[in-house]
Amino acid sequence: MSSVNKDLPKTILVTGAAGFIGFHLCKALLERGHNVLGLDNINDYYDINLKYSRLEELGIDRLKAENFSEYTTSTIYGTQMTFVRMNLEDRMELPKIFKDFKISQVCNLAAQAGVRYSLENPEAYIDSNIVGFLNVLECCRNFKIKKLVYASSSSVYGNSEEVPFKETANVDHPISLYAATKKSNELMAHTYSHLYGFETIGLRFFTVYGPWGRPDMAMFLFTDAIMHDKPIKVFNNGELSRDFTFIDDIIAGVLATLLNSGKDQTKPMSKLYNIGNSQPVKLLDYVAAIENELNKKANKAMMPMQAGDVNQTFANIDALKADYKYQPKTSIKEGIASFVDWYNSYYNKD
Fold it and tell me: In what residue span(s) does the NAD-dependent epimerase/dehydratase domain sit (predicted)?
């Protein structure tokens, strides 16, 4: 593989840049003076207008961003943001961006998301989450990238009854294809670190919510339904709990692992960390908190458990605290208020 011009500025590659977490990460990196190359395929799993709106917040022109494999650049916060629309599974095109830019680190957040959707469209998960991730690993290997941080998921724990979930727990029993692809990513990353000597860090995200959040997630679904006097679906009759984690706390953890060296450098090149709030909330309590913020009662439609879903999530974050001083700070009340403020500003502009 040919190398890039050594005079080029160092750039951090963020895949899934038009996604919820990816957008916030790009913004945080730009604010901190880093040049960013964002990649996303803008698939229609949910409203593409929301994805383009996120990119516009980063200074990226929508009409230019719609073109596949063409770079669109803006200057924001005094640093350079470049966007390219591309599929990770495109084995021919992906290496070209590594040739064209002096990429220092990679954060792979691109994936086909959603536990429930994996029951309907399994092929999308294999294409993006397995084939796409392999291509990222191959590019990191061939272009001598020293660090890859990538998104895993709390879903790898399945219906484990050992709580809080700890990274050393057995995760050989995923209960959705989405979870199985994330477990596969962890194994693939471990193998590449072992064989080729570059650092890989997998972050097991726990139910991320906040401004610019995904429309298929509970925070968005509940708020939208309550505000429009529509019933909300409460699965397993409300007998669920989630380790809801505010986006700012997630981004703080991603930045720490991406930009800094961990405390213990004697650990293996391949690492896994839980990244959550470590304070699980019962689903009905979560709904009540949203009701309080909206000053409006929800019409609850009690539903049975959905296939592929889990009863609880609860992150043990001791390892991330020890190695990167991670400490979530946002309460559920503060996080919900922040989301509702954004929702009103984005959807109720008039």
Answer: 12-276
